[in-house]
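[recover] target loaded
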């Protein structure tokens, strides 16, 4: 068995936590001596994606390939699949084709399956990152995507989950995998653990992330509207996404124009310095980096009891909210405004717990160890 691997990471959108995970993993794997490449969508992410890809490019000995990839199922998928297969075959071919998310996982497994038929030694590893698992089997879209996941399962050599929650969700919605599986949590760099210094005159609350219904921004705004009747505060909604206009309209409808601002996307560290408390009101999550990064920065947090968040806050004493519960979120915000000290103490305890469990180095070694297991 070779000491090092040729690895191609396949994913659709160069945005959000999945993209950050791939960049961190690719850079760490390159530092370990592996040859790494990326393939992703050509049209998503804008200038921020270009900058991030330019930073990771020196680590990508196998290059960065960008081709059109559609968010939903369509004819463009045929070209993306063929491009993935060609890229995996370039040079002497890759050893590991690692698909991330629903689309990346589909392209990676279909391409690996085709290459195996031509006697190429290659393995398909899949990390769902939520993806198809966010869909409910009672909906038409859910039935379609989960059926496709079951179709692709026999083409999978190994599945890596970021959390025990994700593994349980996969087993409940798709079935128990017949291939090898491993839980390898996301990790942070040492420089991400620091004592946060707030900007002058910070806001009281901040949401940071993709502006879409799944993230519960409407729940956050409704709780702020209830709070606005009794308390003076300032709040931020930082990020962008498909539902951004709808959330701005909702804020106006709730008469929050003077207390809630939408400054657009910015790096997490910059966003953290702008407010005293992070609100994570998500309806669903996989293993959210924003909660992990806030924990490392000792930023007080009010979060939903979804996805891997309970695993992140384990040991801190932090109480989580049921998703969609406007009243409890409002009450927790009132409690923070009246006495932030317990929230600050929880944030300090959480930073200590996270620093021992979630590192990029540990994540990269865990993933590569799993590659060796699926190759044997």
């Amino acid at each position: 068995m070779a000491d090092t691997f040729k690895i191609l990471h396949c994913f659709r959108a160069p945005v959000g936590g999945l993209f950050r995970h791939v960049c961190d993993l690719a850079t760490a794997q390159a530092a370990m001596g592996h040859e790494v490449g990326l393939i992703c969508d050509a049209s998503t992410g804008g200038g921020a994606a270009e900058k991030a890809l330019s930073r990771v490019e020196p680590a990508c000995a196998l290059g960065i390939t960008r081709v059109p990839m559609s968010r939903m199922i369509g004819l463009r998928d045929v070209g993306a699949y063929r491009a993935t297969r060609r890229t995996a075959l370039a040079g002497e071919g890759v050893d590991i084709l690692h698909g991330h998310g629903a689309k990346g996982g589909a392209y990676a497994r279909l391409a690996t399956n085709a290459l195996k038929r031509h006697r190429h030694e290659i393995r398909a590893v899949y990390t769902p990152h939520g993806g198809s698992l966010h869909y409910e089997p009672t909906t038409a879209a859910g039935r379609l995507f989960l059926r496709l996941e079951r179709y692709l399962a026999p083409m999978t050599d190994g599945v890596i989950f970021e959390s025990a929650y994700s593994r349980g969700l996969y087993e409940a919605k798709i079935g128990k995998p017949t291939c090898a599986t491993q839980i390898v949590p996301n990790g942070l760099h040492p420089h991400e653990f620091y004592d946060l210094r707030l900007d002058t005159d910070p806001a009281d609350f901040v949401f940071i992330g993709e502006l879409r219904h799944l993230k519960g921004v409407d729940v956050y705004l409704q709780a702020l509207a209830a709070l606005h009747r009794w308390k003076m505060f300032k709040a931020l909604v930082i990020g962008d996404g498909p539902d951004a206009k709808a959330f701005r309209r909702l804020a106006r409808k709730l008469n929050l124009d003077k207390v809630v601002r939408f400054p657009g996307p910015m790096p997490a560290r910059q966003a953290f310095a702008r407010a005293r408390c992070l609100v994570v009101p998500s309806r669903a999550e996989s293993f959210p980096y924003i909660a992990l990064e806030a924990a490392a920065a000792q930023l007080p947090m009010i979060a939903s009891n979804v996805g891997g968040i309970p695993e992140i806050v384990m040991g801190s004493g932090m109480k989580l909210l049921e998703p969609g519960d406007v009243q409890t979120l409002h009450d927790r915000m009132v409690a923070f405004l009246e006495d932030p000290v317990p929230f600050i103490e929880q944030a300090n305890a959480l930073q200590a717990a996270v620093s021992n469990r979630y590192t990029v180095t540990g994540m990269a070694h865990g993933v590569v160890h799993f590659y060796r297991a699926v190759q044997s």
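[recover] notes: The chain has a mean pLDDT of 95.
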